[in-house]
Amino acid sequence: MAADPALTAVLTALAGVVGLAVGSFLNVVVWRVPQGLSVVRPASACPACAAPITARDNVPVLSWVALRGRCRRCRAPISARYPLVEAGTAALFAATTWWAARHGDLALLPALLYLAALGVALALIDLDVRRLPDALVLPSYPVVAALLGLAAVVEHDGAAALRAVVGGAALWLLYFALAVARPGGMGFGDVKLSGLLGAYLGYAGWSSLVVGAFAAFLVGGLVGVALVASRRVGRRGSLPFGPFMLAGAALGFAAGGSLAHWYLQVSGLLPA
Question: Second label for 190, Cα 20 to 30 Å away, from 94, 180, 209, 271?
């Protein structure tokens, strides 16, 4: 059952505020994790002059605007990516919360917000260094198991929990087979991530699992063709696949059932 509209509005706004803070932390994660650095210590500092970033200069988005994108001490430029990640994470958290409230899936919201934050970090890291760090992916398995399991208990939906296990195993096996069949074509970071995404998609339903798995390759292929056509990537160039896996999973989870039903109708397998 959908949540009350007033409650939905409050939760969505609160999620957006939380998303700003999470986005600020994700900027640290994206920069430090690929280098094997701690995300806790030392405190954030200007990369140009090493001046510590004070609390007043660490307010998501607003501090960057107030400083006009420059360090207070040395006036070195601060990348616009920082506020964009903060604002983007806030928007993603708000949209996820709104969707969960509208669909009566608030028990699943912690799991969805965790995936949203993890997805932002992994997508950016994969775009930067073509790698999905084990330090983020592997510890997420017990976290996701706990969050999806908790949602299943709250909703008294043991079938969803079972589908999550089967979905995670099935998608992992698919990606593992692709990685073995074509060495170099599919990284094992993608294989490890596939298990997590398969668990979410399986929890949502079999249609979501199929659509989410297929959508990753479809979106990746379309983007690749567009980049080749615009000559931004050579015909033999490669793209990090993690962002497409995440995009496909989001599409499968949010609209997998509807898309599968539409396809079956269009193909004539179901009556219009």
Answer: 94
